[in-house]
Specification:
This protein is of the alpha+beta class. It has helices at residues 2-25, 77-101, and strands spanning 32-35, 40-46, 50-56, 59-64, 68-71.
Length: 109
């Protein structure tokens, strides 16, 4: 019972905690981050246990590293072009469906 408890609860949580600490220790200036409270910012400087975050142009705040929830990954231009192509196809499909919905024949009263 103890072994099952260890493999189902303790080990996965310990692994997530180690990954979180590794991510927080690998922060570099210029990295986009989201804090655990949902604030989006850019790392400006790193002290021993603190991180200076720029939350708006010219507005810098000091946070503990543990408050960094995740690192934001920039979206590639290629992915953005693919999304635009898909959106364009959806618009064309919607326009075609709208045209099919309208009956072009006229009814006499």
């Amino acid at each position: 019972m103890v072994v099952v408890f260890y493999f189902l609860l303790i080990r996965p949580q310990r692994k997530r905690q180690q990954e979180q600490v590794k991510m927080q220790n690998s922060l570099t200036p210029g990295t986009g981050v989201m804090t655990t409270t949902g604030l989006f910012a850019t790392v400006v400087a790193i002290d021993a246990d603190d991180v200076i975050l720029e939350i708006a142009p010219g507005v810098e705040t000091r946070w503990v590293k543990a408050a960094i929830g995740r690192v934001l990954v920039p979206v590639d231009d290629v992915e953005e072009e693919n999304v635009k192509a898909v959106d364009h196809d959806l618009v064309e499909t919607a326009e075609q469906q709208q045209g099919a919905d309208h009956d072009t024949t006229t009814k006499k009263p």
